[in-house]
Amino acid sequence: MNLKKSLIKLTSFCLAFGMISVTYQNCGSPDANNGGAVSSSADNGDIIPIPNTKTASIQRASRVLDNLVSCLGTGEPSNDARDAWQNNRGTISEEGLANSMTQPMAKALVSISAEVCDDLMNQERSLDVDQRRIFLEIDFDNGGVARSDLGLAAKRLARSCWGRNATDDELGMIISNIDSNFSSGEDNRDTTRLKAVYLCTAMAASFSTFEM
To answer: For residues 210 and 58, is the Cβ–Cβ distance under 8 A?
Structure first.
């Protein structure tokens, strides 16, 4: 099994953009009239004020890879991660404008995040359990991983990359998405590894990771 090709095939745009949208209501840029946060409309056109929400921007393209490496704790990015960033940075906002989110940008964040998450999985599967940061309960040498163990990893990813605890609704959406995308097929070592990278990618590519 080609892990990364399978991951990109499984990690649909709907997953990435759905996760980005979980916290999209918190993003925006200053509104001259009321000083509140603003949000772009669905077609990324008119900017609509959102009462009682914070003003935010997103990471510039130049900071995306460094931000992912930092929150996932992978150290020096692999050549594949660097290549993904170089190949996709042109579709990511250079100014960090909050209303610059587009479908190509969401796909770019998935592609880059998938490579850095693959780095994380490769790093942690070579470590003893007590030395890992994220995938403490996952046995990469055997097939099968419990939903509860994926949930624990998701909570650690949220604290590390989102800077907050994931809500129950967010965790439910992530785990349900994994269930639906892995509903058929054999439970083996490759599937266990794929689920770990899939989980990481879904969370690392979310808007919560890149908002400022």
So the answer is: yes
Per-residue DSSP letter, 90? G
Give the burial class of 152: count Cβ atoms within 10 A of its Cβ; 0-12 exposed, 13-18 middle, 19 or more buried: middle
The structure's pTM equals: 0.76
Q: CA-to-CA distance for 160 and 42, rounded, in angstroms?
A: 29
pLDDT digits (tens, 9 = 90+) for 74-100: 999 999 999 999 999 888 877 666 566
d(CA 169, CA 212): 22
Evaluated on CA atoms 105, 106, 108, 109, the torsion sign reads: positive
Which ranges of 39-141 would DSSP assign to H, the alpha helix? 64-72, 79-88, 103-125
What sign for the dihedral angle of Cα 24, 26, 32, 33? positive
Tell me the pLDDT band of 208, cut-offs 50, 70 and 90.
Answer: confident
Quickly count: other Cβ atoms within 10 Å of residue 175's Cβ.
17
Question: Residue 211: beta bridge partners?
Answer: 58
How far apart, in whole angstroms, are the C-alpha atoms of residue 63 and residue 65?
A: 6
State how far the Cα of 186 lies from the Cα of 20, in Å rounded to an integer. Answer: 30
CA distances 90 to 24, 60, 160, Å, are: 22, 11, 26
